[in-house]
Amino acid sequence: MSEAVIVAIIGGAVTVIGGLVMWWLRQLDKRYDAQQSAIASQQARIEKLEHRDKLSWLYIRRLIDHAYRHGAVPLPEPPAGWLDDE
C-alpha cells in the first residue's frame, strides 16, 4: 500500500472517531440539561411543600390557641393558600 492510501485511511478513521466523540458530547450535554431541568422543578416543588408545611403548623397552632382560649366555634379560617391543591 502506498503512503497516500494509509494517510487516507488514517484520516478517515480520525474523522469517524471525531464525529462519534462529538455526538457523544452532545448526548452528554442533552442529558445534563434534562437533569438540570428536573432538579429545578423538584426544588420548586420542595419549596412549595415547605411553605405549605409552615402554613399548616401555623394554622394548627391557631386552632390549639383558639380551643384553649374559647373552646367554641367558629374555628379560625385556614391561612390563605393552605387549601390550594398541588
Span between termini: 70 Å
Question: What overall geometry do the principal axes of the alpha carbons give?
Answer: rod-shaped
Q: What fraction strand?
A: under 5%
Task: Kindly report the average pLDDT value.
Answer: 89
Helix content: over 70%
Instruction: Provide the low-confidence segments as ranges.
Output: none
Order of secondary-structure elements:
H
**Total of DSSP H or I helical runs spanning 4+ residues:** 1
Q: Which class do the helix and strand fractions yield?
A: mainly alpha
CA gyration radius, whole angstroms: 31 Å
Got a strand count? Answer: 0
Q: Main beta sheet: strand number and arrangement?
A: none
Layout of secondary structure:
Elements: H1 3-69
How would you describe this structure to a colleague?
With 86 residues, the chain is mostly helical. It is 78% helix and 0% strand.
